[in-house]
Amino acid sequence: MSEELTVTIRNINSARHPIPDVPVLYLVEPTATNLNLINADLSRNLYADAYINFTSSIPRPLMEDFAAQIAEAGTSESVAQVYDQYLNFIVAEPDLFTLGLGKETYGTLNSAQTKDEDLDTLIDKIVSGLFSVAVTMGMSFDERHGRLQLTGAQARYRSFAAREVALRSPLLQSLIAN
Questions:
Q1: Inter-CA distances, 99 with 40, 64, 69, 113, Å
Q2: Which letter does DSSP use for residue 58 in this model?
Q3: Can you list the positions of beta strands (E) in 33-99?
Q4: Fold adopted by 24-84
């Protein structure tokens, strides 16, 4: 006996009709807007079980807000699994990746006109992307030396922005060779 599998892909921002006997797999950025949309779907019983996959690590406060929302709505039983997938980088070749931040990134990082909040946002994206790369590469924590191990890698910084990226990430701090 052969089973057929049908997959329907929809943008989370588009109108979707109920398919109550089918599980849903969300692959979304961990934003308050996306979590509100998922909560609305759960409240409307659009699907059976929900498998929620975030493209990067969801910040704890955001996850706590989402948990409170679904608990209040009484829809927590509809959530089957929640995963961080660490996908916020693009692999161009086997030994080449990009964070996909655009050509203006260098100018933004090094411009005196860049607002602090814009710089903070960009640095957080860089940290998140580099952490995703490290997780994907299978880095491991060396308890004896108290740092993450990545063979042959040394992190050095030459500018304020690179230093800030390194200082905001415990992962990158462990790679910095003093």
A1: 31, 27, 32, 23
A2: P
A3: 50-54, 79-84, 90-93, 96-98
A4: Rossmann fold (3.40.50)
Report pLDDT for 134. Answer: 78
pLDDT in tens, 117-161: 999 989 988 888 888 887 777 665 566 766 665 543 333 434 455
Contact 164, 173 (CB under 8 A): no
Give pLDDT tens digits for 162-171. Answer: 555 556 665 5
Which pTM does this prediction carry?
Answer: 0.68
The span from the CA of 72 to the CA of 64, in Å, is 12
Judge contact between 41 and 52, C-beta under 8 A: no
Domain ranges of the chain: 24-84, 90-175
Residue 91 pairs with which residues in a beta bridge?
A: 97
Token pair 């996908």 in the structure block, residue: 87
Give residue 103's Cα distance to chain centre. 21
Beta-sheet strand order (sheet of 24-28)? 24-28, 50-54, 79-84
Tokens read off for 34: 């996306």
Q: What are phi and psi of 50, to 5 degrees?
A: -110, 130
